[in-house]
Specification:
The protein is mainly alpha-helical and about 190 residues long. It has one domain: Phosphatidic acid phosphatase type 2/haloperoxidase (Vanadium-containing Chloroperoxidase, domain 1). The protein has 6 helices and no strands. The chain has helices spanning about 1-20, 25-35, 40-85, 115-130, 140-155, 160-185. The protein is elongated and about 55 Å long.
Amino acid sequence: MQQIHDFLIYWDYTIWYYVNVLGHNAFLDAIIPFFRNQWFWVPLYLFLAIFMPANYGRRGWLWCGFFLLTFAIGDQISASGIKPYFHRLRPCNNPNLASMIHLLVPCGSGFSFPSSHATNHFALGIFSAVTLQKVAKWIWPVAIIWAFVVSYSQVYVGVHFPMDVTCGALLGIVIGIFTGKVYNRYFNLSLAK
């Protein structure tokens, strides 16, 4: 068991090193911090809050409610349910990495595992894909790329390790599938008039 743990930690730190320390450049340094900033995505959320009810009526309002519920479930499970049990330091708070880390945003004092950004964005992306796939065929790649970019940016800016975002993404996928299937069962958008 210890060998598996050591193997995973080795690769986690190695991938982090290549993304955060060796993989940065001036162009990416300028744009990537925006992708992990919640305010950057506010126009998208406002668009959805207007578009969905305008085009799907009551089912659109319910979709917005489920979208918020999906976020709340993901955030609570990752931030309040899991992080307090692992107590994993963020890379930017790890004294062993202080001399090499390429930190682009304020570090934060919370724990690192799992990444709530990854959990929340994968949950929202997968929920959107599951519920909109019959009315927007292109939604799956867009949702996955969106969630991946947000998750990757967490490693790039120095606030998470790859394992944090990978496990956060897996948790988010499960949550998004669950809330999406519940929504589809009772309020399928393809049946909206």
